[in-house]
Write a structure and sequence with these properties.
six-stranded mixed beta sheet, Rossmann fold, 15 strands, alpha/beta, about 325 residues, five-stranded antiparallel beta sheet, about 25% strand, about 35% helix, 11 helices
Length: about 325
C-alpha cells in the first residue's frame, strides 16, 4: 500500500476544488441550479460548470465498505478487490485499509423551525457529542448549519472538540428548510479536509420547504466531490410509522445516501441517536479506499462497480460513480 500516493491524490483533489470554488464562493445555490440545467443541455457555465471541470481530478478515490452476516469484513488486501468503470475492468493502483486511519467529517445541521420541536435539536447535539467523544487524536471535524435559505460554516476543520461543543450549544431552531441547497454546499466545506477517509453527516427532520435546487442537482454536486453522505433523519414516532414508499422526503434522503456511498438512518428524538452515530463512525473507519488515476480528455459521469473476493455472502457499499476523465496511467 502506498499511503503517500493516496494522500497526494486527496491533496490534489482538495487544491483543484478550492481553486474552482474560490471563483464561485459568493454564488448562491440557486445559481448552481440554473447552471446545472445548462450543463445537462451540454453547455456547462457558471459556478457548476467551473465546479465540474475542476472536479475532473487526476485521481479518483473510491471508499468501500464490506459487510457479512457476522459484521465488518476486515483484513482484505488490494488483490481482493475488482473495480470497473463503465463496465471496463480498471486496476486498483493504490489502496488503504485499517480502522485506525483518521477521518475528516463534516457535520451539517438543520436549524430550521421544525427542528425546534419534540427535542430534535437536543437529539442532534447528542449525536455530535457522541461523535466527538469517540474521536481519535488525528480525526478532524467541521461544523455547519442551515436555515432560512442560509448556510453557515460555524467551525472549519479542527481537532479541538471544545470549540465544536461550544458552537453546538448556541443552536436554536428558526426559519425554513432548504436541504437540497445545503447539501450542494457540502463540497465547499470538505475541501479543507486532510484525510482520504472523509464524509459528511446530514442531520435533519427531512422536511424541505425552501430549496431552489432539485434533489438530483444536489446529489450530482456531491457525487462529483467523491464524498459519502450519511443521513440522520430525526423523526417523531408518528413520522417513523408513516415511513412508507410514498414518503417522498425519506426516499430522497435515502437516495442521497445510497448514491454517494453513505448510509441512511431514521431515528426518534428519544431513541437511537447514539447507536446511529456509532454506526456511521464505525463504518467510516472500516472503509477500504481504492484509488486509480484518470487521463485528460472528455469529462463525463462514469459508473463505478466494485466486487470483492471474501468468504461467505457479503454486501458491498461504495459510491456509484464519478465525474471526470477515463481511467489512465499513473503520472
Amino acid at each position: 500500500m502506498n499511503r503517500k500516493t493516496i494522500r497526494r491524490a486527496a491533496a490534489a483533489f482538495a487544491t483543484a476544488v478550492f481553486v474552482a470554488l474560490a471563483a464561485a464562493a459568493q454564488a448562491p445555490p440557486g445559481d448552481e441550479a440554473e447552471a446545472a440545467q445548462e450543463a445537462q443541455e451540454g453547455e456547462p457555465t457558471g459556478p457548476v460548470g467551473q465546479f465540474s471541470e475542476q472536479l475532473s481530478v487526476s485521481w479518483v478515490l473510491v471508499p468501500v465498505l464490506v459487510r457479512s452476516d457476522d459484521g465488518y469484513v476486515e483484513g482484505l488486501e488490494k488483490d481482493a478487490f475488482r473495480l470497473w468503470v463503465d463496465d471496463e475492468r480498471v486496476p486498483v493502483v493504490d489502496f488503504e485499509s485499517g480502522a485506525t486511519a483518521p477521518v475528516s467529517l463534516v457535520f451539517l445541521q438543520d436549524l430550521s423551525g421544525s427542528m425546534a420541536n419534540a427535542d430534535k435539536l437536543t437529539a442532534s447535539k447528542q449525536a455530535l457529542a457522541y461523535l466527538l467523544s469517540r474521536a481519535r487524536p488525528d480525526d478532524e471535524f467541521a461544523l455547519a448549519s442551515f436555515a432560512g435559505g442560509r448556510l453557515q460554516v460555524e467551525v472549519p476543520f479542527t481537532r479541538d472538540a471544545q470549540v465544536l461543543a461550544e458552537a453546538m450549544e448556541l443552536w436554536t431552531g428558526w426559519g425554513t428548510t432548504a436541504i437540497h441547497d445545503a447539501v450542494a454546499w457540502i463540497p465547499r466545506i470538505v475541501v479543507e479536509g486532510r484525510h482520504p477517509k472523509r464524509a459528511a453527516v446530514l442531520v435533519s427532520d427531512g422536511l424541505d420547504n425552501a430549496s431552489e435546487l432539485s434533489a438530483e442537482d444536489a446529489r450530482e454536486v456531491v457525487r462529483r466531490a467523491q464524498l459519502p453522505v450519511y443521513v440522520l433523519e430525526i423523526r417523531q414516532l408518528g413520522d417513523l410509522q408513516a415511513a412508507v414508499p410514498s414518503d417522498s422526503y425519506a426516499l430522497l434522503l435515502k437516495e442521497l445516501a445510497r448514491s454517494t456511498g453513505g448510509r441512511y438512518f431514521a431515528v426518534r428524538p428519544d431513541d437511537g441517536i447514539a447507536e446511529a452515530a456509532a454506526g456511521l463512525l464505525e463504518e467510516l473507519r472500516r472503509q477500504y479506499v481504492l484509488a486509480f488515476p484518470t487521463q485528460p480528455g472528455e469529462i463525463d459521469y462514469r459508473r463505478l462497480k466494485v466486487e470483492v473476493d471474501a468468504p461467505g455472502h457479503v454486501t458491498i457499499y461504495h459510491r456509484r460513480g464519478y465525474r471526470g476523465g477515463l481511467p489512465g496511467a499513473a503520472r
